[in-house]
Each structure stands twice: as structure tokens, then as C-alpha cells.
Amino acid sequence: MRLFVVAGESSGDKLAAGLVQGLKAHKSLDLSGVAGPALEAAGLKSLFAMSDLAVMGWRDVYLRLPLLLWRLKQTVDAIVRQKPDLVLLVDSQEFSQRVAAGVRKALPDMPIVLYVAPSVWAWRPERAQKIKPLYNEILSVLPFEPKVFADLEGPKCSYVGHSAEHLAELAGSTNRENLLLLPGSRAGEIDRNLDALLTAHSKLQQFENADLITVEHLRKRLERQVRNHKISISSGRSAFEQALTHAQVALAVSGTVTLELAFADVPHILFYVADKKLGAHYEQVGRPLVGLPNILLQREIVPEIVGTEARTDDLLQAAKNLADREDARAAQRAGFEEIRALMKEGAPEAPRQNPVERILSYI
Q1: Full-model pTM
Q2: What is the DSSP code string of 173-221?
């Protein structure tokens, strides 16, 4: 089976790698595409560095636009030239949509599957119908999304669970005394958020030890940025999972990592400094919930400190409250238990399906 995979960021790379390993149990795979270390370890030689696509916010996109357009052309041309059996696009919604459009135009019958649904339930619901011609199917990692796409007349959508569910095995970890800092997986995110996280760390006297986990290609940069702080820096998946077993509280930049923290039963604060355009939209639509644990439960169990300016004082106050009060941490853990149950089974109208079987159905 010739499979072309495009993963534009660390979380997507890890997600796709899990699916690839599952497929290998059923098929011999010829892999190509764009990937990071997890997919490369599974045998995929990346067309170019995945980090070229790791942008967040309009400013980051603007600054890298010529490179992004070139990488888009490279990706579409490679797919058209190779004519794989299936194209798997993983998250990175804007880039994935443009790749799908280019491939669909050149190869109308090519099976194209999107892994991780765009958040049409949060903003621009009209996108659901717009992308329907592009994707044969969307593999969703959130259990309510199949109904959303059906109601909006979007592409076929199947809930397939989340690759981070194994982190639930860490929920009973003891000896959790550390502070865990998760500043994001993109350079732009780190530039906007790191200073506030470091300020909070320096003022949280409750923790003798602090861990900061990043992606490998940003590690040296972060080591320079935190050299004056007593923080242990590590990178990679195994380091992240090890840090989870010792974390009493985490300060996390918004993203998939908040759901991973919920699986692992780590109470946390969600923090995010958005660029001005994204921040303006956030205000325009009424400051909706942005953290995946909160979205899944439709209530705020994890404090969200979000804005276009660094709300450092608010972050520090929320972090102190969580560090000082066992009842606050227990309330989050009770919510995380609800999430783990929901993610295991799926919604009644859209029971969980096997992502490997969904992919193989197109071959």
C-alpha cells in the first residue's frame, strides 16, 4: 500500500505515526510525505522539514508565506507524480485544505482522508460544506464532531478515538510534586507565551522542581531562553510522558496537549497569547471555550487565561490557587474522569470506530 502522509506539526506527527503502526499489522506500506521524528521513525523519509509548516496565527503565516507556498507546490506535485493509493492529511487545516484542493483538481478520484477535523463547531461553520468535495472522510478525535458535520452537511466524519488515550494509565501516578511548563510546539507560540510562563514559575514558591518539555528542533533555542531559570528542559515523547508522572500542576499553552494532560490526570492552567487578528476573532465570537477538556464537557473545569496581551498576573493567581488547593485539583480530576469515559466509547449517535479499518476501506 502506497501511503502519502502530510503532518505539519508535532501532535499530528505523533497521531499519524500511531495509525501507520496499526496499518503495518495489515499491509506492507510504502510511505512518503511530510513528517517529523515520529513518522520518520516509522519509516517515512520527509519531503522537507516538518517545522517549515509549524506556524500559528496570521502574523506567522505572513512572515513565512513565500516558503509555505513553495512547500504547498512541492507537496501537491509529489502526490500527483507518485499517485499513491491514499493521501492522509493530518490536522494543519489551512495547509491540508490547500493540498487537498490541488490534488483533487489533478487527480479527481484520489482517496483523501483528513485526520483531525477542523473546528467548524467553534467558528466558520460554513467551512463544513466548503470542504465536502475535498475529503472522502474525516477521522475525528472528538466524539461530538460526527454529528456536527452531519448537521452542517459536511464530509463523512467518523470518531476514531485519540492516540493519547494510553496516558490514562498514568492517572494513578504518585509522587507528583513538580511544576510542568508546556510553552507550545511552534516558534511563534513560544515567542508570545514563554515570558509569562517563566514569570509565573519564578513566583511559584511551592515547587522545588520544574520541567519544561518541548519539541526537539526548538530545544536549543529554549535552553538559551531559560538559562537563568532553574528549569529542567527535555524534548521528545518519552520525556513528556515521564514528566507527566511527576507533575502536580501544569501551565500549558492551548492545544492538543491540554487533552493529553486530562488523560494523564494532571491539573493545569490553559494560557494563550494570541496574535491580534486571532484575538479579535476570539472577542468577536464571544470568548468561547478554547481548551479541549472544557469543550468536551461544555463547561470550564480548566481555567483559561487567553488574550492578545500576556495576562501574567491572572496566570499567576490561577496557578497559585491550583497549587495551594487540593480541592481545586480534585475538581479538575473529577472532570478528567468524565472525559476519559466519553473518549473511550464515543457519542451514542456516533460510536467509536477503528481508524485502521476506515483507511483500509478505501484500498
Answers
A1: 0.78
A2: -----EEEEE--SSHHHHHHHHHHHHHHHHH-TT-S-EEEEE-GGGHHH
Q: What burial class does residue 262 get, using C-beta atoms within 10 Å of its C-beta: 0-12 exposed, 13-18 middle, 19+ buried?
A: buried
> Could you read off the pLDDT of 16-57 as tens digits, one per residue?
999 999 999 999 999 999 999 999 999 999 999 888 886 655
SS3 of 81, please?
Answer: helix
Q: Cell numbers for 273, please give them.
A: 497569547
Pairwise CA distance, residues 29 & 46, whole Å: 15
Q: Are 267 and 281 in contact (CB under 8 A)?
A: no
Looking at residue 270, what DSSP letter applies?
E
For the chain, how big is the Rg over CA atoms in Å? Answer: 20
- What single letter denotes the amino acid at residue 39? L
Q: Which residues contact 182 (CB under 8 A, 6 or more apart)?
A: 212, 213, 250, 251, 252, 253, 257
Strand-pair partners of 33: 5, 46
Quick check: 292 and 256 in contact, CB under 8 A?
yes
Please name every residue paired with 210 in a beta bridge, in sequence order, or none if there are none. Answer: 179
Q: Which domains does the chain have, with CATH numbers?
A: 2-164+345-360 (3.40.50.2000), 166-343 (3.40.50.2000)
C-alpha cell at position 212 = 519544561
Gap between the Cα atoms of 289 and 303, Å rounded:
10
Q: Are strands 137-140 and 157-159 parallel, antiparallel or unpaired?
A: parallel
DSSP secondary structure, 88-107, as one string = EEES-HHHHHHHHHHHHHH-
Q: What is the pLDDT of residues 90-116, one digit of tens each?
A: 998 999 999 999 999 999 999 999 999
Q: Give the contacts of 102 (CB within 8 A, at least 6 positions apart).
A: 72, 76, 80
